[in-house]
Structure formats: structure tokens, C-alpha cells
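#lab-general

N.A. 3:47 PM
ok so I finally got the sequence cleaned up, no stray characters, all 286 residues accounted for. can someone with queue access submit it? mine expired

B.Y. 3:52 PM
send it over

N.A. 3:53 PM
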Amino acid sequence: MNNSVFYKLLKRDLILSIHIMKLRLIIAFIVYSALVGGEVFLLKQSAQYRELPSNAITVLDVLYELLKGISFKEVEMGRFQLPVTWLILQLSYCFILGTYVRADFIQQTPYLLARKVSRYQVLFSKFISTGILAICITLLFYIAVFFWGAIFCSYQFNWGIYTENTNPKIYNYLKETIFIIKIFTLQLITSVLLVWVYLIVATKLKSVISYVVIIVIITMTIFIPVICNPFDSMLIRKNLFYVNNEHFLYSIFYFLLCAFFLWISGYWVGKTFEFVNRKDDSDDIH
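B.Y. 4:20 PM
back already:
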């Protein structure tokens, strides 16, 4: 593989992707901001009910509550509320990507092949660029949380009195820096896998089917209690305060395993994909 050609192709994918998706990124940031605002309001109401001081809530408290999700026990008992924030965050990755990746792959690859660019270079450039975009989307969410959280709550980078009262295990055993590293990693690896699944399915099938597949995966993640689910980043299921990091390491292991199989699938897609007479049903590449 010609490295200089591949790097130019990757640079082209990243620049073009960000240019085309900038409106969706803005919409996503507005949605993330609304989620943060809603969570802050609920936490303040809860703190007031518990007769806690006005500065009881910090940014980390908000971040944990946003990504906490629901436990396996709650699912088994059938008494739970949908993890709306987690659900919207997971779906937002494919919303931002839209059908651009599929449209660009189908429409532009024949021109690239005519310039002696390998189809494997084209596909793996899409893999890496979508992974980098997933990192950018995750960072966008964290920017929204820390920006609005610092405005409406205590800006201190530590657990607040609220967490001390409601979740003493996390308050006592999980250091703030380790918490940020773990949850960012979990969110990143699950989102990257979702994006890659979307990329492979969207390349072979219609875009609407890709969305259906992602929705099915996310729905199964919520309702089927499987500890080894590589798409599950709900914090309450990971027992982050455990010293042995068992659940966290499981997530890393299954990510690497799934990433390997997805890259093999990507290789197969690149090998078998036919561009002749292939029509694109996407209308939002521009």
C-alpha cells in the first residue's frame, strides 16, 4: 500500500466529511446542550428534594448521570425508564454521518480507481476517517457537558455532595481522572464499532437498512442483559469502581475482537464490491 497516496486519501476524506457534515455537527451540539440542560434541571430538583446545598452538583455528577443508563436488574424487573440520553448519543453518530459515507464511496470510488488508487485504500481510508469522526463527535459531547455543566453547576473537577449521598461507592472508590479516562474510552470504542457496522452495511445495502440495523443493535443492547456486549457503554453496568476493572477490560477485549472481524468484513466488502451500474439512493451528499 502506497503510504503517501493513502495519507492523501485519508486527508481528503476527513476534510470533505467535516465540510459536508458541519450542519449536522451543529445540530448535534444543540441537542447535546439540551440534554445537559435537562439533566442539570433534574439533578437540581433532586438535590433540592434531598435538602442538599446549591453547589452540591459538579460537572462530573452531570456526566455520570447522563451516561449512567439502566442496570440489568432494572431490565429484568421491567421497571425502568429508557436511557434517553444514552440512546440519543448512540444514534447521533449515524445521524451525523448520514448517508455521506455510502454516497461518497459509490460515487467517487470509480474516479479514484481510474487514478490507480486501490479499492482497499479507499475502503480502509473510510474506516479510519469514520473512526476519527467518531472521536470528534464524542469530544463534541464532552465539550457540551463541560461547557454548560460549568455554567449551571459547580465547575470543580471532583465528585460533588450529590454523588456522595446517592452513590457513595463511586464517591469513595473511583478517582475523577480514572473515571474520565474510562468513560471516554467506553463511549469511544462502542461508537466506533457502531460506525463501522453502519459503514459496512451501508456499503452493501440501502441506507435505510443501515439505520434499521443500528437501531436493532442499540435496542438489543438496552433490553438484552449480556455483560459481554461490545456495543454497551452504560456506566451502571460496568462497575467502574471495581479495583480489578473486570468489566472495563471485558469491554476493551471485545472491542478489539469485534474490530478485527469488522476489518475482515471490510476487506471482503472491498474485494467483492461492484461499481458497475451501481446506483446510489442517497440524496444528502451535498
